[in-house]
Structures are given as structure tokens and as C-alpha cells.
UniProtKB/TrEMBL annotation:
Signal peptide region: 1-22
UniProt xrefs under InterPro entries: Cyt_c/b562, Cyt_c_II, Cyt_c_prime, Cyt_c_prime_subgr
Keywords: Electron transport, Heme, Iron, Metal-binding, Signal, Transport
Transmembrane segments: none
Protein's recorded name: Cytochrome c556
Originating species: Martelella mangrovi
Residue ranges of coiled coil: none
Keyword Signal in annotation: yes
């Protein structure tokens, strides 16, 4: 009986460790960054479309999130993470890592510039969305594979 408990306990630990490791996989970390950027863009988009009232705290938080996650994003592309975990990363990323990183840095830089001169109303948030969205779209066109 004691042996069964030890085996069950060891199995539980192994299964739990596998879950933790999967959550820390580079593919999952970069997906988390993209989800955070998407959520922030959604917040800005709702203001730009007039679905939500302009709120400088929300705008600042969204831009800060975009800047932070865009800076972090390129750190999650080691050579051994080209596939797996439902990755939508194009092989072109590893072929053009300098360009890929520069594009991510451009998004972060543009978000930081907008933070320094915070959009002051709905129209300005719409203009910010066009600037940031152009960065996102251009990068996705080259470096994202739709599954």
C-alpha cells in the first residue's frame, strides 16, 4: 500500500512539473506577450471607436503594456522553439532575427513615444492605434503563420 502511494505521489509530481514546464515554454511565453498586446490594443480600440469613454489611465496602462511586452517578446525565440505549443511563428523569424527584433523594438519605441506624449482624446487614441497597428500588421504579414 505504501509503495502505491509513493508511486502515485511521484507520478503526480511529474505530471505537475510537466504542466509548469509547458507554461514556461518559449512558445507559451511569447503567446502570453501577444495576448497582452492584443488585449491592450483592444482597450485602445474600444476608446478609438467610442465604445468606451476616453480614460487616460486606461490609455497609459495599455501603452505601457504594449511597450513592456513588445520589448520582452523577441527574447522568447530560441532555436529549439520553432514548433510546438500551437506556435504561429514563421521560420522567417529565425532567418531574419535582426529584422524581427528591430520590428518588435519599433513597436515598443512607438508605444513609449506615445506614453511620453499621451493621446489626450478619442481622436488621438485613434491615431495612436493607426501607428501601432501598422507595426503589428507589417510584422504579422512576414513573421506569423496562420494555423
Amino acid at each position: 500500500m505504501k509503495k502505491q502511494f509513493l508511486i502515485a505521489g511521484a507520478l503526480s509530481l511529474c505530471l505537475g512539473a510537466g504542466t509548469v514546464m509547458a507554461q514556461d515554454a518559449p512558445q507559451m511565453l511569447r503567446q502570453d506577450d501577444m495576448k497582452a498586446i492584443g488585449q491592450a490594443m483592444g482597450q485602445l480600440g474600444a476608446i478609438a471607436k467610442g465604445q468606451k469613454a476616453y480614460d487616460p489611465v486606461v490609455v497609459e496602462g495599455a501603452l505601457s503594456s504594449i511597450a513592456t511586452h513588445a520589448t520582452d517578446f523577441p527574447t522568447h525565440f530560441p532555436e529549439d522553439s520553432k514548433t510546438g505549443n500551437d506556435s504561429e511563428a514563421s521560420p522567417a523569424i529565425w532567418e531574419n532575427m535582426d529584422d524581427f527584433t528591430a520590428r518588435s523594438e519599433k513597436l515598443a519605441s512607438d508605444a513609449n513615444a506615445l506614453l511620453a506624449d499621451l493621446p489626450a482624446d478619442q481622436a488621438a487614441v485613434g491615431q495612436a492605434m493607426r501607428t501601432l497597428g501598422a507595426n503589428c500588421g507589417a510584422c504579422h504579414e512576414i513573421y506569423r503563420v496562420k494555423n
